[in-house]
Design goal:
By secondary structure, the protein is of the alpha+beta class. The chain has helices at about 90-100, 160-175, 200-215, and strands spanning about 5, 10-20, 25-30, 35-40, 55-60, 70-75, 80-85, 110-120, 125-135, 135-145, 150, 155, 180-185, 195, 215-225, 230-235, 235-240. The longest helix is centred in the last third of the chain and has 13 residues, at about 160-175.
């Protein structure tokens, strides 16, 4: 038995040569083979994708894939050797498992978990998760992946994000009829603290503070990444200057 929320398929070690055009990563595998892997991450991955870093990739046998390998994690050394998850298709899958197992504090009174639910006045937005129960308000949860750090402080965002700003505004608009939660998936285990990345996006920082003042719940969830799987470590402490 393990306490992994998510277990990776077999992974293959290598060295990152370069990441380019966002979705491509040239890698030398431990076998000596040179490959181009799919990098499932649209962000700048600030401080994470340095050439020469150790990486792990997964492999797919699907005949429809142009790139059979996927970049899953990169080793960094900000606070000692640490694996950072870079596959942004995983956080929502892991959070779904965490919600199903009810391991996240402050979210334990629901009976139903739904995902990608339309909401808002125009019903054009989709919330990542909607929790409902007989004796509680509906809980709307937006999930944000974060890998940027300064020391032991995890930060989001690492670039200007108009989409992220929109999500904060939409969460505030749900109050007071519902519970609104911004959940940050800290995709590395070396950061016990979290703060908004105001140096990268000052508007986001202002909206983040306004959201907290309005009653939006902020849950910075820490995860330990390893080549075997992903463990939940608990909540990071929020730091606001």
């Amino acid at each position: 038995m393990t306490d992994f929320l998510y277990q990776y398929p077999p992974l293959y070690p290598g060295i990152l040569l370069k990441r380019y055009k966002r979705f491509f990563a040239d890698i030398e595998l431990a076998t000596g083979e040179f490959i181009t892997a799919h990098c499932p991450n649209t962000g700048p991955m600030t401080g994470v994708c340095a050439p020469g870093s150790a990486v792990y990739v997964s492999h797919s046998d699907s005949p429809t894939r142009k790139l059979p390998y996927t970049l899953e994690m990169i080793e960094v050394h900000d606070n000692g050797p640490t694996w950072v998850g870079v596959n942004t298709s995983l956080p929502n899958r892991v959070i779904n498992l965490a919600l199903t197992q009810k391991v996240i504090p402050k979210l334990d009174d629901y009976t139903t978990v739904r995902y990608e639910v339309p909401y808002g006045t125009d019903r054009k937005s989709r919330i990542d998760f909607l929790l409902t129960g007989e004796s509680v308000k509906p809980t709307y949860i937006e999930v944000k992946n974060t890998t940027w750090v300064q020391g032991d402080l995890a930060l989001f965002p690492d670039t200007v994000t108009t989409r992220g700003q929109k999500h904060l505004r939409e969460l505030m608009a749900l109050l007071p009829d519902a519970t609104a939660v911004m959940l940050y998936f800290i995709n590395r285990g070396d950061c016990p603290y979290f703060a908004p990345g105001e140096r990268a996006d000052a508007v986001y920082g202002q909206l983040f503070r306004a959201a907290i003042a309005a009653g939006v719940n902020v849950l910075p969830c820490r995860f330990e990444i390893s080549p075997l799987g992903i463990r939940y470590l608990g909540l990071a402490s929020l730091k606001l200057e």
